[in-house]
Amino acid sequence: MAAGPGLLRVLTLNVGSLLEPGWDRRRHEIVSWLDHVEPDVVCLQEVWEDATSPNTGAWLAEHSGTEWHTAFGGAAFAPELWPDPSLRFGSMILSRWPIDGDEYVRLPVLDDADPFPSRVPWELFRVQTAGLDVSSVHLAAAPSHGHHRGAQVVAIDEHLRRARGELDAIPPPGTTREAMPAILCGDFNAEPDSDEIRFLTSLAVLDGRTTFWQDAWRVAGDGGPGLTQDWRTNPIAAAMNVHRKRIDYVLVGDPYQRTGSAGRVVHAEVVCDEPRTGIVASDHFGVMADVVWPMRPA
Asked: Could you count the other beta carbons within 10 Å of the beta carbon of residue 172?
């Protein structure tokens, strides 16, 4: 089921390896899906490790049939929420190719009467691999945390623009952009019609600024709702009593005038949505996308 030549296959999944039940069984389900869909790059959220427990994302990589290169970025919870200071909670990125660099960025939260958002290390974790720029993010969780997420998506876009420099500048007439657009994946905890996602997909203005990322599901999905949490089919989500929603995304930067149609999203689907080993992978479903990548290494 691997992607065809000249394509990049990206998978994102919040694995829920710390707080959700059944990890010892669910991790085998996630490995089964990794081996089934054969992605090239994987962004995993809610990965953790501490002084006595090995990294949960590393376990998945080690038990998969693919030889993965990995990088992890995480930080501790506030002691009021989790007393073990050795805990690191964040994102891991898996790549078929060596990872040339990585960067962890703690995302901002606003002053608020609710202390919870400030006690969790919401993150942007970015790697460079095989000429790709790939980021995994985890944004403030509650439906009522939209004001925090608004500040976080602005910070994400600002940071990635600064990091990429001129790679995404509109080219002069008659020329094309050589660089592959950036890939931005993760658990945004925001639905498609929220200001946060509308900002990222050029449909809303936040803090006087605009940007544009392609929502892979919107441009290349099968036209359904693309739900990534659904209590009707996911018993963990049902036990949490969360409403049905689409909050996990593969976003791809602007493909306009890229050499060889680089960055065109040609396929997207919801994955990790049916048990392959008798148990669901997570309280989230995953999203997978195939993206044109003309400079794909052999």
From this structure: 8
Helix (H) or strand (E) holding 71: strand 69-75
Task: Collect all residues with Cβ–Cβ distance below 8 Å to 294 and sequence separation of at least 6.
Answer: 6, 259, 260, 261, 262
- Work out whether strand 132-138 and strand 99-106 pair parallel, antiparallel, or are unpaired: unpaired
Q: Which residue has the tokens 């990125």?
A: 93
- Distances from the Cα of 140 to the Cαs of 36, 40, 98, 115, in angstroms? 31, 27, 30, 12
pLDDT digits over 2-60, tens only?
777 899 999 999 999 999 999 999 999 999 999 999 999 999 999 999 999 999 999 99
C-alpha span between 169 and 156 (Å, rounded): 18
Dist. CA 40–CA 170, nearest whole Å: 28
Q: Is 158 helix (H, G, I), strand (E, B) or coil?
A: helix
Helix (H) / strand (E) containing 101: strand 99-106
Judge contact between 97 and 78, C-beta under 8 A: no
153 phi-psi bin (left φ>0, alpha ψ -120 to 50, beta other):
alpha
CA gap 210, 12 in Å, rounded: 25
User: Hey, what amino acid is at 208?
Assistant: G
Q: Give mean pLDDT, residues 136-150.
A: 97
Tokens of 72: 């992890």
Q: What sections of 141-288 are H helices per DSSP? A: 146-164, 195-200, 216-220, 235-240
The answer, yes or no, to whether residue 1 has pLDDT greater than 90, is no
pTM of the predicted model, to two decimals?
A: 0.97
Closest CA to 91 of 40, 45, 132, 37: 45
- The torsion of the CA quartet 76, 79, 81, 85, rounded to 10 degrees, works out to 40
**236-247 pLDDT per residue, tens:** 999 999 999 999
pLDDT > 80? residue 285: yes
